[in-house]
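Formate dehydrogenase, alpha subunit
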Amino acid sequence: MPLVHETDYGTPASTSETMVTLTIDGSQVTVPEGTSVMRASMDAGIEIPKLCATDMMDAFGSCRLCLVEIEGRAGLPASCTTPVAPGMVVSTQTNRLKDVRRGVMELYISDHPLDCLTCAANGDCELQDMAGAVGLRDVRYGYDGDNHVKARNNGDLNLKWAPKDESNPYFTFDPAKCIVCSRCVRACEEVQGTFALTIEGRGFNSRVSAGMHEDFISSECVSCGACVQACPTATLIEKSVIEIGQPEHSVVTTCAYCGVGCSFKAEMRGEELVRMVPWKDGQANRGHSCVKGRFAYGYSSHKDRILNPMIREKITDPWREVTWDEAFAHVASEFRRIQYQYGRDSVGGITSSRCTNEETYLVQKLVRAGFRNNNVDTCARVCHSPTGYGLGQAFGTSAGTQNFDSVEKSDVVVIIGANPTDGHPVFASRLKKRLRQGAKLIVIDPRRIDIVRTPHVEASYHLPLKPGTNVAILTSLAHVIVTEGLFNEAFIRERCDWSEFEDWASFVAEPHHSPEASEKFTGVPADIVRGAARLYATGGNGAIYYGLGVTEHSQGSTTVMAIANLAMVTGNIGRPGVGVNPLRGQNNVQGSCDMGSFPHELPGYRHISDDATRDIFEKLWGVEISNEPGLRIPNMLDAAVDGTFKGLYVQGEDILQSDPDTKHVAAGLAAMECVVVHDLFLNETANYAHVFLPGSSFLEKDGTFTNAERRINRVRKVMSPRNGYADWEVTQKMAQAMGLAWNYTHPSEIMDEIAATTPSFALVSYDYLDQVGSVQWPCNEAHPQGSPIMHVDGFVRGKGKFIRTEYVATDERTGPRFPLLLTTGRILSQYNVGAQTRRTENVVWHPEDRLEIHSHDAEQRGIRDGDWIKLMSRSGDTTLRALITDRVAPGVVYTTFHHPDTQANVITTDFSDWATNCPEYKVTAVQVSPSNGPTDWQRDYDEQARQSRRIASKLEPAE
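Tokens:
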């Protein structure tokens, strides 16, 4: 496949519905009012030369190449900054224009190194292209290798000299090649919203600067790559292009990191990936990216990757490499033996939120049709199952209500328990752009996350609540809305059950739910709560975005229902700019839920006890499916410790590092007789595995991911699987070894089966996705084009359901022994348990997990910034270094969980959500004290992990 080229129209599209007709070079063209002359010309098939213009940003008009003549107007206006007008007559190619453009280009070239043959951008340089487009064949002004930022005086560097900046691990900045078009600065401002770059100096001394004379790595640059993508020369260019050369073909695929689901062009030379470039037609990211998706793909070729199957008898033995056939036969034999010895329910499987829909579907099918039980679970339950339960109860469907484009119509945005600038940065960039345009922001979070105050953005209200009090704060917000008469009565009467509303309204109106009464639980001043409630209820289109800080609590499901109550009571459902929107953590959390990864649900969120639903799958699969819900992950571990659960197939998950109460997880895994880990690396769970099946990266497979906005995106294979098989093929071959007659030849056939059995996917196929780009479920006869906005004319369940949300304090309490509350989260450069990002240059920004602690708490304990500290809870202890900050309030500490040598989850408890068993990661009572080094547990764990990763065929010969 050749390189996929995207058309750059020079300026953004107009959204006006009024059309204007004009004439360009003798041809009539009709475009929306507000369109630039440049873009209108592109619509007519006429490309006007340009350097500073790009359709990712607003027009700037500085390069003076895109000048045109307009009949009846004096001078030569820039086509990028000139809007069309009815009857306008434009000429884009006259002798006068040719002379002016050549003169302008001659000035650019006179100050630019003429090293095209050795330049890494040769063949992909807009300056080079434009020189050809305007017919420049000679430069009258001399060039001797010096220019305005690379000048020498008698052999000594003068003050104008600026060195090449190679501090960033992924791209270089060569100021000598800069034409000061400002595209990188504007991209940093308009697209990313970081404002890290600026133009310093004036006139001929102008140059791009990262901050105050800092290098890129020391500046506020977040390495999203927007500046690199915007640069028309080799001033900013990927180091991979310098090392490998220009790509010769590309494939459009979907990022395998967070739940935003960005589309990328994987640009290749043969089977070597040169770079990932965000795809402008990607309907989730609109041509933007973050540091992970743009640059952190090196893990796919990392030396740690395991490419051959391995088995061992005991977890204390070294691994032994075997053939695929031997591995499959061994797994089938062991699982048959275990089920014969311990019963049909003694084995189970865990699906992955990082694998494709098709692969996840096959794992749950293997458990139900092969193991003949419902012992299947997924990390999606560990993070977002309260979303499914809570929204299902209130609205009738288990997913967010909006698309990401919706934020552009929001007037008030509430963020609760989410940190989008770190966890979902591409969405956060779009959100920040809307906030800069005037939308208001309310942040509900124990920690002062970046978006509370960032360049040109500041929250109207920050509610720094005590961890574990989400329900109390949300019910207090509802109290204000109801008691002050701010509710939308017309919406409620039309779309909800009025009697249920009256019951709920009387509940939230009770005095003990007032902000003043709740303040003693939440720690948030009552006047701030009242102000936030009034703003959300009266500020126009109100949208709520939430994350794991909502769901990972003992009242996670209750909190989701409380959020739904707020949206319904204010009428903020069913149109652009409003809604309830969970920000999914991993790339296919939504899809793994959709595909029936829960022990009580078949694909499409249909309960396993429903006879009609089971009948659909029984007829297709030719087996009888149990109507009894199976075991969740914690139940599997409990049963393993009790001696009744002995075999587990884990695809693409690392439960030892990601699940709570690490010691209990380790005990459960150690008690099993056959743990099969299917992954890219020998992860922490593999320390307790008996079989390792090498996995394939997203670059090596076909399939689909479903992002946080229910968007089903194609994943396309860009290189051959380095291990020999895509993950779906591994699962199929394992099923075949167990006697199942599966014969899929391509993942598209698996999607056809999903569409045939799952109503919300009824019209989804690879052909359709290739045709439209992507689609949001439900996509069926009722919604053939998909459903960008849910609940437009009514709720899926019929009437929206108001539900009482009584605050119940968590059983995890502070006290003299454990006086602090620990909450956890993620950081921009790292992803989940770090298995992928730790094997890239992203470790430059986050080499270790650290504990954020307020200076007051640190001073009481004699802790200084950077000191090693011991973090203790009722479950366990670990050590890490302290980071003294005012981001957290006194009494609250915070850490990330990206590094296994910290193992933050050895601290978290086994408390969980009352409805879904989702672990309560976000509230753990702890004590912090100075430390001299690793705990005994850390030392034992490190030794056990080191011993477990021995591979017999790779051991050094004995001396």
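Residues 152-159, 955-959 have pLDDT under 50 and may be disordered.
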